[in-house]
Amino acid sequence: MNIVLFDTVENRTQLLPLSYTRSVADMRIGILTIKEKWERYFGQSVGVLTEDYLQPKYGALSHDAETLFIASNVFPTTQLVAEIQLLTAEHGLSFSDTIIAFKTTIKFPDIASFKSNISNIKFTPPVVAAQFVESPSAIFKYNGQEIENDFKLLTAGRISKTLSPTNTLIGPADKLFIEEDAVVEASILNTNTGYIYIGHEAEIMENCAVRGPLALCEHAGLKMSAKIYGATTIGPHCKVGGEVNNAVFFAYSNKGHDGFIGNSVIGEWCNLGADTNNSNLKNNYGDVDVWSYATEKYEDTGMQFHGLIMGDHAKSGINTMFNTGTVVGVSANVFGSDFPPKFIPSFSWGGAQWLRTFTFEKSLEVAERMMERRGIKLSESDIAILNEVFERDKKYRK
After folding, report:
1. β-strands 98-104, 67-71: how paired?
2. pLDDT greater than 80 at residue 191
3. Which residues contact 25 (CB under 8 A, 6 or more apart)?
């Protein structure tokens, strides 16, 4: 059976700037991306239906048989997957007006065609509650529960590598899993506060202090003397040092030096200069307002703790200070003294005193240099995606 995770215009807009360069299905929450979670539950690969400019990244969809469509911003659970598997043709599950999943023989050419083509599908509420990722803050908000869920999914029936005697473990050993080729030495790990997963060829350097929940994904690393509070995910190939609290790094991003990042989401190919810090709590302890692409204004999140949301390929210079609830777009380059604006559009260059357009050609040079260091080439499809983002965010740049 074909299985496709579908974006909608609405959920993509709510998750900008993180969704500018990927389907919502490719967002990492816990150890795995949403797509990887569904593939684990179903035991097969799944397709992705997203916006036209992103679709080449995921390939063409097969329509040879009945297709099971699942919303890309829904977390899978054993109970929800069981309900979805019972769906018959032209039937689906929805919560209020939000579609969870449906099975159909209808062919959908693009995500804009969903609303006009599902009138014949009969939707019923699910027996179990479904949980949606409806904002960037949901990524760090639900990260703890998803680290636990993914931990159990990935380690069931497996035996962890023995923790080296140079380390100190505080808490139950069954909440720690170390892949056989990972390296952990002379550090303190506390599983009383949550699960800790150390992925393939990941490394925790000496003198780190870690409180779970933590996901250190494959080829990721914690630099010496890092202080990590849960629930935190360090995505594949990320290198992180300093102090981190309840943050998610997607992949290939670096925070190699001291400085604090908390209640934040950092995209791919980002680099935070030495002593980059973000505020995650207002001085008056009030709720944090954050820029919304959906409404094009600042919205009350109802959250007391909210830090930095940073799109792919963004960078910060040494000693950069991000205010509470700052949103930084794709390929922005932020530097200078004092707090920069709380909304920095994609392809911006500057900081508190001024912001200019970071020319597209110069931004590609930076992206290519950073990716070459990891042996990865910036593809033509990547360039086309970044060009689309450059044009879409142009209206926000002065």
Report:
1. antiparallel
2. yes
3. 5, 7, 33, 34, 35, 38, 46, 48, 50, 72
* Structure confidence by residue, pLDDT tens digits, 247-264: 999 999 999 999 999 999
Q: Name the β-bridge partners of 355.
A: 350
* Token code pair at residue 142: 């639900």
DSSP 336: S
Q: What is the mean pLDDT of residues 349-355?
A: 94
Phi-psi region of 201 (alpha: psi -120 to 50; beta: other; left: phi over 0): left
Q: Any idea which residue has 């996901």 for tokens?
A: 215
Looking at the chain, the whole-number percentage of residues with pLDDT higher than 90 is 92
Percent of the chain past pLDDT 70, that is, above it, reads 99
Q: Give the distance, in angstroms, between the CA of residue 127 and the centroid of all CA atoms in the same chain.
A: 28
d(CA 298, CA 308): 14
- Cβ atoms within 10 Å, residue 81: 16
Supply 311's token pair: 């799109």
CB 233 within 8 Å of CB 31: yes
154: three-class secondary structure by DSSP: helix
Q: Give the pLDDT band (50/70/90) at residue 60.
A: confident
pLDDT tens across 16-39, in order? Answer: 999 999 999 999 999 999 999 999
CA distance 299 to 302: 9
In this structure, are residues 226 and 244 in contact, taking their beta carbons and an 8 Å threshold? yes
Cα separation, 392 vs 398, whole angstroms: 14
C-alpha torsion angle, residues 311, 313, 316, 322 (rounded to 10): 0
DSSP 39: H
Q: Do residues 212 and 206 lie in contact, with contact meaning Cβ atoms separated by under 8 Å?
A: no
Residue among 234, 238, 262, 267 nearest 346 (CA): 267
| For residue 1, pLDDT beyond 90 | no
Angle at 327 between CA 324 and CA 329, to 5 degrees: 155
User: Is the pTM for the entire model greater than 0.85?
Assistant: yes
Q: Residue range 95-113: average pLDDT?
A: 87
Strand partners, 247: 264
CA-nearest of 22, 30, 14, 238 to 136 is 14
Rounded CA-CA distance 8/72 in Å is 8
DSSP string, 211-274: ESSEEE-TT-EEPTT-EEESSEEE-TT-EE-SEEEEEEE-SS-EE-SS-EEEEEEE-SS-EEPT
Size (the chain), residues? 398
